Amino acid sequence: VLGNQDLQDSIKPQKVEFHSLNFNTTLHWQPGWAREARDVLYFVQYKVYGQSTWQNKDECWGISSHVCDLTHETSDIQEPYYSRVRAALAGVYSSWSLSCRFTPWRETNIGPPMVTVVHSNKSITVKLQAPRSPYRRKRGSKIPMTNYYDLLYQVFIINNLLDEQHRVLVYEGKDKVIKIEDLRPGVSYCIVAKMYMPVLDQSSAYSSRQCTVL
């Protein structure tokens, strides 16, 4: 039988990490090596860097999941945060496992834009929509990520006749509607786009492909 100290060590959460996309922020961890891992319960706390007291996250207090949503708790996006997790099994509690410091504005990942394509006989009109944060304006609509960063749209065209992997950058800027002209009728073209953040030199993933035949 494991002694208490061994049991504490065996259930202690591992790899406590923040994951964040467009300020939708979750804490993830991995279970310890205890064989009874599925019976383990987890307890999550968080605080702003520099504060002395930890806050309990009520919705993640005594949960069996390995993920906890901290979007609401990390809404002051310039502040650095910490979180920590401990585990309990059969009345025995592990010590706390601490996350790295997390600053949403610096560390959230930006998602790709939404892309809509409308074609005429020799041109494609591309409509772009920036990803949205989880935070809402007073009227209720979600605030776009362009409110928080100086973001550029990058639009690429793929000529399927030539090479499906070859993306040509046709536009970089802030316009939400762009027109690509002098294209060949009867040819299949695909458009993908991403968001680019010059200040941190970061790009989003590519959007899903929107394809059309002129």
Automatic annotation (TrEMBL):
Cellular component per GO, a single term: plasma membrane
Location of the Fibronectin type-III domain: 12-107
Superkingdom of this protein's organism: Eukaryota
Keyword Secreted: yes
Keywords: Disulfide bond, Receptor, Repeat, Secreted, Signal
Presence of keyword Repeat: yes
PROSITE patterns with a match to the protein in the record: FN3
GO MF terms, alphabetically ordered: cytokine receptor activity
PANTHER family: INTERFERON/INTERLEUKIN RECEPTOR, INTERLEUKIN-22 RECEPTOR SUBUNIT ALPHA-2
UniProt similarity note: Belongs to the type II cytokine receptor family.
Job description of the protein: Receptor for IL22. Binds to IL22, prevents interaction with the functional IL-22R complex and blocks the activity of IL22 (in vitro). May play an important role as an IL22 antagonist in the regulation of inflammatory responses.
Protein name per the record: Interleukin-22 receptor subunit alpha-2
UniProt source species: Loxia curvirostra (Red crossbill)
Gene that this sequence comes from: Il22ra2
